[in-house]
Amino acid sequence: MLTPEIRKNLTGFYLFGAPGDNRLRKTLMRRPSPAMAPVLQGWPGPGPGARTDRPPFFIHAMTQLLSLQLGKARRIKIGERRILTAFGKQSVTDAVPLMPLGLLGDEQADLSVHGGLDKAVYAYPSEHYPYWLAMRRQAGLAQIDDSLPNGSLGENLTLQGLLESEVWAGDVLQFPGCALQVTLPREPCYKLNAVMGFAGASRLMAQSGFCGFYLSVASPGTLRAGDAFEVIPGRRGVSIPTLFAARLAKHLR
Questions:
Q1: Looking at the 3D structure of the chain, how many domains does it have?
Q2: What is this structure's pTM?
Q3: What's the rounded Cα separation, in Å, for the pair 248 and 253?
Q4: Of the given ranges (104-113, 153-162, 219-228), which has the lowest mean pLDDT?
């Protein structure tokens, strides 16, 4: 029997059905809460072909493109300087063409560190937004502006159900109309401080590891907000957190 407590713990997740049901290739390495033990006890697990190097029970998150953002490069004032940036991207609801160098209508300000084939699209987990809201409140910004819409971190894709710790360089995000391949973590820069409204935002990104990740275009096509996607594992030689850690020292000096 599914009690209210168990139902609450299952919200946003679902289990493998019958043995052999391997429709989802993306597995979150999370232990279920104690309240779910009666449901999971005796569950036979995934069938042939599934990975066996994971905890004995598997919970799958619904992976979805919550919102899609585009933006033009513009100048903002940072101190005494006016800096070109493409932060502050705006959400769009229509399907957007995806080409080898990115989304139609999107721009990057500094092509030496953004854009190109390996950084065509930037994705960010929606799960980190509460953290940034809390940091802004701590900085005293709540009374000025307590909103933080999707795209505020400069991302094109605001994702649900996929964190940096769960992806590796070479993994493919398969959408209904295209495919994107994970390449590199985003490195924080000084512009983030200006956009978030307080000094130290870039340092917090470095410390937390809430960096998001870049994607190359494996198969051009279209993207639309609301699209579900699945993660197809690549060779998994190096993870996004490992790549980010390798670049971390210069941001924490």
A1: 2
A2: 0.75
A3: 9
A4: 104-113
Q: Is residue 99 domain-shared with residue 215, that is, in the same domain?
A: yes
Statement to judge: residues 197 and 174 lie in one domain:
yes
Q: Residue 62: how many CB atoms within 10 A of its CB?
A: 11
State the residue for tokens 């957007």: 96
Mapped to the 3 state alphabet, what secondary structure does 161-212 carry? CCCHHHCECCCEEECCCCEEEEEEECCCCCHHHHHHCCCCHHHHHHHHCCCC
Q: Which amino acid is at 60?
A: H
**What residues contact 139, with CB distance under 8 A and at least 6 apart?**
197, 198
Residue that the structure tokens 């009690």 belong to: 3
* Cβ–Cβ < 8 Å for 26, 16: no
Give the C-alpha separation, 31 to 58, whole Å: 8
Tens of pLDDT, residues 51-71: 444 443 334 468 999 999 998
Nearby residues of 107 by Cβ (< 8 Å), 6 or more positions away: 71, 72, 73, 86
Higher pLDDT, residue 159 or 6: 159
Q: What are the tens digits of pLDDT across the range 175-197?
A: 999 999 999 999 988 888 888 88
Question: Does 68 lie in the same domain as 56?
Answer: no
pLDDT band at 135 (very low <50, low <70, confident <90, very high): very high
CA distance linking residue 168 with residue 242, whole number of Å = 9
Residue 218 domain boundaries: 64-252
